[in-house]
Protein 1
Amino acid sequence: MGTKTIIIIIVVFLLNLAFSETPDLVCSNCKQRNDIGNKFCSNCSESLDDEYSAWLLQRNEQKIHEEKFISGRVDPPRLFTIPTARVLGSKDISLMGGGAFGVAEVQQSFLGTIGMGLGNIAEVEFSSVGLINNISQGSPSVSTSAFKIQLIPEEMFGLKYFPTLAVSIRSSADWKDVQSDWRALNSNKAFYDYNEYTQRSECAVSSVGYNTRFTIMYGVATFPLGPVQIHSGLTLTDIRVKDMAVDYIWEEDNDVPEERQKNLIGGFAGFEIEYNPQTKLMVEVKTDSKHEYNLETKEIELSHTYVAIGGVRFFFTKWLSIDTGVLYQTNYTGIADSQIKLGLNLFMPTGNIPEYFKTSFNQKVRKE
Ligand SMILES: [Zn+2]
């Protein structure tokens, strides 16, 4: 309840800022607010020519300021979750954190990422990723490391609209131990029905556990079309499951230690639109792997679920931005399950610090 209220307040606050309007013409004679098209004050009929030229000047200054803001902005090399073909600036460090918050439960635990740019062409990243499954409440988080490199860097051949291409590999750091919890099993209809009807036949499931790890390889292309950027890519996911252990209430346990492997081919696409210098509209759709314990086969079935997120990225400063939107997954049963996605992006332009001091030092010298 508390978090939900805070999130709603933040969203309303951001939208308010995003839609702040241009100022009116204020008559210097009587302080009456006038429409921008007015030649004369609607109250005292004085000419508004001076006010209009002052307004134009102010707007031009604002435009220059906004262009500077955009060009100096550090944009995370991803939308909400899907990667783009951008990479972090050389030696720049990014810290990102966030999660998805639903009405029923916090489905994704707090997920964090730390990344560093290498030579304006590659980046390394350590992050925790949520695992979608049907045996535990929420998504257990898995530590991963990733490496991304651009094959076609930005503005190749000096062409502004040339697509950027990058490839990446992300791997879980270790085997992740996933354990069912009783509440999740009970609130799952299939499990509940199974256990209700099979109680007497003495094979009701009491717990499920297994170890898993994965590696995701992907290629992504970014198409810059002025204020709109489109990102699209293909993913190959190699998922391993081992040490499968199922406990029954009345029966003996069933342990399957051997490793199983599955390859899943998926994809993602999204776009971002520059709304104003501080706000971007972002929409993304992707496949995500889903682990589901199957009561018939008594195994973890690996398949795809589709995830869609739409919302905004708002820049507080050039280095601090917040992503907020609504998330929906096809394994949800209705829109009441949709979640608020919230993320914070902080950059340390460590690569630019020597440059920054140099320029401010030069400016000081020039002034004296
Ligand atoms: Zn007036």
Protein 2
Amino acid sequence: MLAYRHQFHAGNFADVLKHALLARLLVKLAAKDKPLCYVDTHAGLGVYDLAHEWARKHAESRDGIGRLWARDDAPALLAPYLDAVRAENRGARLRFYPGSPRIAQRLLRPADRLVLSELNRADCAALAERCASDRRVTVHLMDGYQSLKAHLPPRERRGLVLVDSSFDRAREFQRLAGALAEAHRRWATGVYALWYPLMEPVALRAFERDVVATGVRRVLQAELAVHPEGWAAGMRGCGMLIVNPPFGVEAEARTMLDWLWRALADGGAGGTRVRWLAPE
Ligand SMILES: C[S@@+](CC[C@H](N)C(=O)[O-])C[C@H]1O[C@@H](n2cnc3c(N)ncnc32)[C@H](O)[C@@H]1O
């Protein structure tokens, strides 16, 4: 049994960053009239009940989606994400939060495919049940990194891979960089979105060096910090590496992150960063 349960964290600021970018990437990819494959290596439950006692324990969604839920001034770029959250909730009260598979189910088309892996047996079973009526979806009780070996390249030769590790094991940054290198060898033209927490600067710099050393190019880095550097009470921020981003994502990410930072930052702390970690 894995110790990490996303139910404790669902809808927090890290989910907001990850899902806002994910939704935007999927919208752009789905704008082209060709089927695509979405591979989600660490898929989670699919939908989270924010009234569940685990979600209420630290109420992390309060400083995440809870701050955006009732706002009507978000940039249009955030609409695919916010609409996905609103679609889970009838009425004015925020209760259910869509995870990455649910957001992808909503934004993808009938001819697209979703390949979901989750290693927690109970969560995987719940996810499979939730997706059972959707013929586009296959759910695998499988290690996410093994799933990359098993499922790449997809037959569509178009699509997006989300690697959203729970970072609850040592050496996860090295594992992530290694997985990117190997996945990219199998499928160099795929779009990859790799989520990571902002932790100690030394570990982050080593991660960046490892990613650059893979030789993978066109790596966009988008980071959002909502607490000051050195903040010890938890995660101060997080980031997403986007490999082969569709045209326009760099500028769009800047607009989205600036607005999110204003909405989510702890008294003006932290900031955003969007840059090419490895350009063309
Ligand atoms: C951050 S959560 C994923 C959330 C989900 N991607 C979303 O955005 O809604 C990480 C998930 O990975 C699962 N997990 C942990 N280690 C894994 C592994 N080696 N392979 C696949 N899943 C794993 C955990 O059980 C957890 O559900």
